[in-house]
Amino acid sequence: MSAVPAMPVAADAATPSRDIVLRTEKLTKVFGGFKAVDDVSFAVERGTIHAVIGPNGAGKTTLFNLLTKFHLPTTGRIFYGQDEITTMPADETARQGIVRSFQIAAVFPQMTAYENVRLALQQRMGNWYRFWSPERSLAGLRGRAEELLAAVGLSDFCETYASDLSYGRKRALEIATTLAMEPRILLLDEPMAGLGHEDIDRVAALIREVAIGRTVLLVEHNLRVVADLSDTITVMTRGRVLAEGSYAELAANPAVVEAYMGTGHG
Fold this sequence. Notes:
Distance between the termini: 20 Å
CATH topology of the largest domain: Rossmann fold
Oligomer: single chain
Radius of gyration: 19 Å
Helix content: 25-40%
Largest sheet: 6 strands, mixed
Number of helices: 9
Number of strands: 11
Number of domains: 2
């Protein structure tokens, strides 16, 4: 790759012309004496697919944990639109529409695909714990559950137990249960992990579809998927933002190439 001047780090989140839905200011998380996330400021534009990439140990998952309140930051702030949500509890953050797939949306193998989505709908309504409710009292959720399963290509698997679904279809079911939470911002943490080539293409197409009308923030190691899906990419290394831009811009950035070639990106 030809050398070009190093790109600036993340663009100014306060730029008036940008419709920012989620942003951080100098976000830092320290575990003991180790800074897993170090002074990270970045912004996600509404209605885009924004990827966070970087070598192993770059701080990507810790950043996701901070955004979804599995951890509280040591210092720094998080904003959802104009509102600061730094100390907002995880459940309230999810109710506000910031939902992390594969974490909040657990899939229960002993339940059918339909029952998994229905349970997620119950959680959204605040009555997820009412397992003793008679089936007829939950019949009103059937239509919406079937719509969500159709949206992820699982119409023919409504009554299939989750344990009997292929790995790729389990991922699709997890996305359906996440969509039941009515996310405004969908956070996907390594959605392609463990998938074969055919399933990767299927799930990538699904992400593109569900991103319509939503904002998607994803951590992903598969750079082909990142290049194909993402509007904006933030590169992290050693807990900090190294660069931000399109895939083409980052591929021509010597600092990004060195970070990947020097440490690997698996």
